[in-house]
Amino acid sequence: MDQNLQTQTRDHFFERGWCRFPYDPLLAAWIEDGIEDARQTLDAPEQAVWLRCGGTWFAGVNALPNDAHGAVPGGRPLGGAAFEFIANELGLTGIVWDRAQVSICYPGYPIKGDHETEAAARFRRNRDAAHVDGLSPEGPKRRRHLREHHGFLLGIPMVEVGAGASPLVVWEGSHELMRAAFTETFADLAPESWGDVDVTDDYQAARRRAFDACKRVVVGARPGEAYLLHRLALHGVAPWAPGAGAGPDGRMICYFRPEVGGPEDWLRAT
Fold first, then answer.
1. Distance from chain centroid for Cα 83
2. How many angstroms separate the CA atoms of 162 and 222, rounded?
3. Per residue in 58-73, pLDDT tens?
């Protein structure tokens, strides 16, 4: 990546909370190594729990059998411009890569799931199921707690799809709005106790402010390209648009969300 593009990409990421990387042959080679492993996750009995929304979404959390370098069995490790950016601009090196989520959407997404409330289904349809990663819903009332401290979210499209095939959406600048909200929530509390705090009300209030104040943008990319989201950015998945095209694989994206620090890093790092 040349210096001007590097600067533009850095500014875009820190100001808006996301950036996209152009075609990278190293990433294209990684996709070639991993596409069959990604497809086979659908056939693994232990992964059947991830088929949701009336069969229109395979969530596939940690379903890809990659190792700590991001390599599938017999494949190459993750590498290329996006990973140089993560090292140079985010200061994150020596990452132990998590097993990737294999997120697959199909035409008709989202259909209301059998165990989904009408309110949840409506939020998925109308607000893209917008969320910040790492805030786990717990208990019968699904109250939110900070349980995972991701460094970022990296999306790698695995197949070609048409515009409108349930793309990622992000609310630009929401990462700093969320940072301000959680800084207030956790003020004067020891970081080791943050996970015990029920953040649901503060989180939902900050999310409403983001809907009002931040621009919702659609993030698209082709195989060989990638996009990076700030860990605090509000994001979601758009409904499948009428007439949007895709092959038999549907819309397949691999997402990496490695944990690279503790709660203070999650809140305060760049």
1. 16
2. 10
3. 999 999 999 999 999 9
Q: Decide: 240 and 107 in contact? Cβ < 8 Å.
A: yes
Give the pair of three-digit tokens for residue 105.
């959407």
pLDDT given at position 115? 86
Task: Report d(CA 254, CA 94) in Å as an integer.
Answer: 20
Which residues have CB under 8 Å from 150's CB, separation 6+? 133, 134, 231, 257, 258, 259, 260, 266
Nearest of 188, 160, 38, 56 to residue 112 by alpha carbon: 56
- What is the phi-psi region of residue 62: left when phi exceeds 0, alpha when psi lies from -120 to 50, beta otherwise? left
Query: For residue 6, what are the β-bridge partners?
Result: none
**How does pLDDT run across 86-101, given as a tens digit for each residue?**
999 999 999 999 999 9
What are the backbone angles phi and psi of residue 127, rounded to the nearest 5°?
-125, 20
Residue-wise pLDDT tens digits, 146-176: 999 999 999 999 999 999 999 999 999 999 9
Question: How confident is the prediction for the chain on average, in pLDDT?
Answer: 96
- Contact yes or no for 166/105 (Cβ under 8 A): yes
Enter the CATH code of domain 3-261: 2.60.120
| Domain spans in the chain, listed from the N-terminal domain onward | 3-261
* Torsions phi, psi for 77 (to 5 deg): -70, 165
pLDDT in tens, 181-239: 999 999 999 999 999 999 999 999 999 999 999 999 999 999 999 999 999 999 999 99
Helix (H, G, I), strand (E, B) or coil at 122: helix
Integer Cα distance of 131 and 255 in angstroms = 15
